[in-house]
Every structure is written in C-alpha cells, then in structure tokens.
Amino acid sequence: MITCERLTVGGAAGAERPVLRNLNARIEHGRVRAVVGGKGAGKTVLGWALRGALCPGLSRTAGSVRLGDFDPLARAATAEAAGHVAWLSEDAEGELRGAATVRDALASALTARFPGIAFDDLTLCAALARLGINDPKILDRDPELLPAGLRRRVALAQAVARPASAGSPKLVVLDEPLAGLERPVADEVIDALAGMRRAIRTTVIVLTRDLELAQRFADEISVLENGQIVETFCPERAARRANGVTARPLARGAGDAPVAEVAGATARPRAKVVAEAAAVTRGTTRRAKSGPLAQGPLAAPAALPALELRNFAVTLPGALGATPPVSVALQRGGGLAITGPTGSGKSMLALALVGGVSPSSALRIGGDLRIDGALQESRAAARTAAERRAIQLVTYSTERASSETHTVRTLLRRAVRRARPAVSPSAVGSRVSELLALVALGPDRLLVRVCDLSRAEQLRLALARALAHDPRVLVLDGGETGEAEGSAEFFAACARARRSDGVALLSLSRDADALGECCDAEMRIGGGSPVPLAGSLIEGEPRSARRAA
C-alpha cells in the first residue's frame, strides 16, 4: 500500500505557496496509477517525494508518505530508498549518455544503487528481459546508436535493474515515459511497460500529461491540479465496451496540450459534410434521446445524417488532453478524413465517439453525438447493445492479432451472431462469405487461424469484424493502419464498404493522401493553442483532383 496523507512540500522558508498541498492518495499494491496534470501541477515533485529525493530548496513541511511501513522522506531512509523505488526521470535516456555500451550503462546504475553487491551478465540480461529485450548481444552495443524504441526500453531496464538478492522494488515511478516518442515507437514502449508490470508485479505510478497513455496503461487515473489531487477515477477501455471490436488507445508523443486549426474541407456531392466553428462545451448533461436507433445497416430514414457531431469535444482542466470541438454531419455512405499531426487529439476523439472515454467531473465530454438522429450517451456502458454496434472503432493491433488462435470463420460468425441473433446458421454463413469478399479475403482463409494470417490479411479482417456488427458508422484510426503492410488494399476495402453497406466512414489520420479514395472530404487540425475546429465546404471538387492540382 502506498499512502500520502496531507502531504505538503514547499520551500524551506515556507515563503512561497507549497508545490504539493495537503495531498491525499492511497494506492493498493500491484496497481498502476497515472497522475495527470499540466505543467506546474506538481507531478515531478510528487515523484521526488515518493523516491525520497526532494531537490535542494524543497522539503516536506507537513503530512506523510509511506511505502508500506517505509518512509522515503525520513533522513535515515535516504540511502535505503534506492532499493525500494525504481525511478525513471523525464530525461529518460540521460543516464545512457556517455556509456560506451549497454552493459556499462546497466552496470553503472546497479553499482550506484547497490554498492558492494556483486552481479554478472545474467543480472543485466534479466533486467533487459523485463522490457522484452531477449538478445544478450545488445549488451555490447552503443546505446546512442540504438533505434528510438529500443533505446527507451533500455533506459527503462536501467531504471528497474536490480540484483536478485535485492528483490523487486516496492514502487516504480515513471515520469513522462513516452516523452519525445512518435506514436508507433510509443506503442512499442507501452507494450514493453505492460510486460514489465507482469514480470515484476509491483506498484507503478506514471506521471504524465498524456491522457491517452493513462487511459491505455493505468488501472486508475488521478488528476493533479495546483499540488492537490482533485479526482481519481478508473478509465474504461474501449476494447471492453465496443462489443467485440478491438480498440487500443494510442499514445501521443509528449508535448503540450494538443491544438486544432482548420486548413479546409473538400467534399463530393455524395458525401454531405458540414463543418462549422464551435466553442468547447464544458460538462456533459443527460438529455432525452430523440428518436429510436434504427436496426440493420440501411434502416434509417435517408434524411437523417448517419453521424452528427455538435460541438463534440473532450477536455480536462487547463486543456490537458483536449480534443478540438468538432461539428460535422456525415450522411450514409459518406467519408470524412480528420487529419493532423501526432498529439493533435485524433485518437482521443476516436475513443470518445465509441464511448471508450469515461467522463467525470475532471474529464469532460461536451457537445452532442447523434447516430441516425438519436442522441448517444457518452459512456459505452450507458448505451444499448444496438447503439454500441451502430458505431465501431477499427484499429489494428499486431500484438492482439498474433495471439488470436481462433479461426477466421469462428471470429466472424460470432460477430455476425451478436448483430443478427435470430437468423439461421446458413444466413450467418452467407454473411460471413459476403464480408470476406468485401475485404478481399478468399474462402480458403476461413479455417486459417487469425495469428497465421499475414499482416495485410489481419488488417482487412479487423475491418470485416467491425462490419459484421452492421454498423451505421465506422471510426477508423488510420495512423497505424496507414503504416501497416497492405494498407492500400485495406483502404480500398473501406471504400467498397461505403458503397455496398452504406456505412459512413470517419477516418482519423496524419495524412489523407494515404487513405486513397475511401474518404471524400478532409478537415485538418494542427499545432498551437487549442482552438475550435472550423471548416468550409468546397462543393464538387474531389480530393484526388485537389491532390493532382
């Protein structure tokens, strides 16, 4: 148990306002707690207090902090704290600089923390293995020449490296562990962190501005403002809420709050896309739903947009983790690409649409989300099964696909059954065959295990699985899919789904050019301070013509 009771940390003279003020927290052993907050909230100082190493000029002026029965801020415990707490600073790779080899970097960290304890290469290899690095040859490589993801994992291994006689740390504190990483590399590091947690089974505290990292990795999230924890809540993972479709929150690169600005929108007459300026709407208010949600892929009245967003946004205090407010109306069979750089809030917007972000008094979802005119609740758990099926998030997870041992036939039949429980087995089989043809997978793949498919086939199968739920709207996280093998065939299948099933497609990607012809219009978000997402409609000019020009 990690406990902080009325912990106050400030200047020695007490002249300035304390950095931490009457902070209270209780974290059960083995849990992962993310502490999110903006610059100056006190996250790093909290990390220093937990490891018993406050910087000069700061001291505990009141309250207590305990790791079990151990007080890291007690004077006699300063040297002992290194054995109890593993620490990764915001400059994650700082201790790797100057080391000739990975072996030297790990050995110097162990020697500094545990003077006089003997260790060998097996100890160093064990530290690397906790972060998924199983090649002993890595010990002889120059850390400065390693790829970014591997170098960050080595830095994490250096932080948790311990001789066998020392046992596991009571606490691991990670200060911005994804700082400076692009999204694909950040995904690799998050997977390694999950493996580390399983390997050492200890308490982990993540100090971060990255709400997507917190949603994906943590069991609990605490919001820190002005040195106080104002709220603690449990995130809802979209994979548990999207009724069978994998939803992985993706980590942004580190940086300040995401920003949005519009470069414009282009649309074909078939896809009516309306974008208007909007202001962030604070809070979420329950309203009576307007109209029933239609059943089946084409049952809604043609006059109603398949997807309508009215000032829809996700915000935290101080714009932490905010998405730009968006207002669009997307008709059946329409396709819209929302594009922007890493960190602009695209993935958070995708999660909020499918109900994978849990609103609270700190994390707020503002505006309206309507499908076929029916107002949707913010949380997936509050939506009906039909409403959850109506909007599906399509993402691609190499890790999940490689561990999926069901056959393609079993996977798709189960998904079809959830959407159409009353149909006959032959009708289910016919729908599975239609889906395979739609995503260009041959009937010979029916009895193949998902893990044995190629990456390109796994990517198209993820789309087929989403379509098996008879959705009205597909939300496509196009960043990772656009970088995967076979992405061109995947986007071509998305275009066919729009034509044949009449599904509306909202794709969130860094670059619309990679999407091929699966979207008709584009809205851009960029960097800077958070501003409303505004757009203009340019009739009659397809994106392909604009690109050619």
From TrEMBL:
Using the record's annotation, list all stretches that form the ABC transporter domain.
2-251, 307-548
What are the entry keywords? ATP-binding, Nucleotide-binding
Q: Name one Pfam family in it.
A: ABC_tran
Q: Where does the source fall among the domains of life?
A: Bacteria
Q: What SUPFAM superfamilies does the database record attribute to this sequence?
A: P-loop containing nucleoside triphosphate hydrolases (SSF52540)
Which PANTHER family does the UniProt entry name for this protein?
A: ABC TRANSPORTER ATP-BINDING PROTEIN SCO2324-RELATED (PTHR24220:SF687), IMPORT ATP-BINDING PROTEIN (PTHR24220)
Protein name (record): Peptide/nickel transport system ATP-binding protein
Q: Which organism is it from?
A: Leucobacter komagatae
